[in-house]
Amino acid sequence: MRVPKISAKAPKEFLIKLDRFRGGSNTLLNPARLRKDFAVEINNLWQVQDGIWKTRPGRAYYGQEITGVSLIDGAWEYEKSDGTREIIAIAGGYAWKSQDGGSWTQLTGTTFTIGARPYFIQIGSKLFIANGTDPLAYYDGTNLNTYSGLSNPSAAPTTTRTGLTAGSYSNYYRIQATNEIGETLPSPSVNVTTNKPRSQWDTSNYITLSWSAITGAKGYQVFWGEFDGEETLIAETTSTTFNDYGETTYPHNPYIETNDDNTTQAPLFKSMEISGNRLWATGNDNAKWRVYFSGTGQYFVSPAFSPFYGGGWIDLEKGGKNKPVAVAHYRTGKGDPIITVFCSSADGNGTIFQIELTTITIGSVTATVPAAYKIVGSVGADAPSSVVKVYDNVFFANKKGIYALRNKQQMFNVLANDDLTAPIRNMFESINQDKISDIVAYFKPPRVYFSFTVGSENDTTAIFDMERGNWTWKWTFGAKQFFEYTDNNGRTHFLVVPSSGNKLVELSENYEDDFGSPFYQSYISPLIPIDKDMTVMAKIKEVVYELGKFKGSAIIEILGVTKNKQVVSLATKTVETQIGTSGWGSDLFSDFLFSTTNSTPQTYIYDTIKKKLKVNKKLYAIQFKIYTTNKATFEILGMQAKGYLLPKRAPSTWN
């Protein structure tokens, strides 16, 4: 009998290739649940080109140390009226200036509380410096200045009746002194009774007030009220006497009450912003619900917050749980520019207000009246320095995540918050909740840099990539502040105020390490299943890694899930830069030299290299890993695994 020939069916080849990484970091989901383009772990890499991972920029000290201090509280670029630039730093209780990495010069004129975070803003030729604790200071390119405060009036004004007699109508008066920036506290009140109500007074029936001059005052405000403590503004004068001819001549302004703080050295505040040709500010711990605004024109260039000069303030839901922490120039849902106020609350929700200004003329007095509107459904910020404008968005952080304020998609004229935290939520929730207010952010297109505290000070940096819409978590260093400085040769430096130390730090791709030492780098892919059918295995024969711009030493590793359902390391290999034996040697072609040296190059950078790992293991899922223990720079161009599929079979250990 003839036996038929049985032909063996060739096994189906298996190939998995990973060369798209646009998902960025995703630490929230189980590695086995992630798409291939996500990364389970990233340390000290960032995304470039079409999303490939690359060694992050290195760090080196920029300029000289600030002698005699241990910490820098903050720093910023200042451009002088002649177009040259300096760095102004606050450290050790003093202000310092330096140019292009040169030595630091201490600026005299005022001091600062050590450890108080400074906030900077330049208006014209003045760099204003506020920290919420010390009086507002400004640097004009030569001197560091503060505003001279006024003494509060210590006595109530004296009063004289003309055409009026004592009667049953009470009239309480107070006065406040003003200078170019603010007002004093009000004087004690005086009550003068009259036989006629104030609405019936005229130039024959009036009250004359007089008071002692306040040294340095530019003017005075007169307040009147029927009840003590409820006085409102009726007039402003530069004299120390005033005739009150009554409501017809001097109608009371119900929008301007007496001051509750002496602001003649400027109010205390932290966050500052320019909007509508005004300086806006908030963050006064003595007036927790207050937002200040300056006048316009000359009272913006030299900010004056007194209503006498078109400035003022508004308390947002005074006594409520939401307290303003930051201001930002943004827009309404319709696109109209408007000041936007980010508020914090103990529960981490907070809210956002927008403030419009209108003018009301009462008698001869024109008042600027603020009106605040809460954005429906908004959440606020807990970290003032995390509020950063990013293209047509505002990013900010609170204890629940990182958010963006932007127009609601597919909805006209509506602003809304988008929570951006989801892919890294578990990592965000692991940061030090007591240090949420220390989160800082900076937008250097196309990336938004955030620095967080995991330990006791800002020690971790994460990046939101605007081009790819994803996260990089994490870089293993922190920052007290990020800023840019363009030196006087036109080179822009991305600088960091470190969490500790008395030197600024530059972050640049010109540096391949951190201060001369290598930093750890790692990438771990998702745990990629062999097939949608969980019982399908593959015999993985080999894995190939392709790296670009490689220099130094790195370790490639392959991991996988075996039949025992455990993730194990299957193979590793160290990839190192090879020193070439060809090229220009020490022998001269002639007496002409191509350079001043004639020895063999010691380091090469490969545009692309491929390295193979032999595996020969049966797997249900595979995972790729690259990491370093020594100095290295590289790009991850792709990885692939080859083998063949095995028949479906569930192992007995699954029973």
Could you explain the architecture of this structure?
The two termini are 44 Å apart. The radius of gyration is 34 Å and the shape is elongated. Strand 36 and strand 37 form a beta hairpin. The protein is an all-beta fold. Among the domains are: 13-56 and 534-649, Jelly Rolls; 158-257, no CATH class. The longest helix is centred in the middle third of the chain and has 4 residues, at 298-301. It contains two helices and 49 strands.
Integer average pLDDT? 91
- How many β strands by DSSP? 49
What overall form do the CA principal axes indicate?
elongated
Beta-strand level of the residues, as a percent range?
A: over 45%
* Count of DSSP-assigned helices: 2
CATH C-level class of one domain? Mainly Beta
Radius of gyration using CA atoms only: 34 Å
Going by helix content, strand content and strand pairing, the class is: mainly beta
Which sheet architecture does the biggest sheet show? 11 strands, antiparallel
Distance between the termini: 44 Å
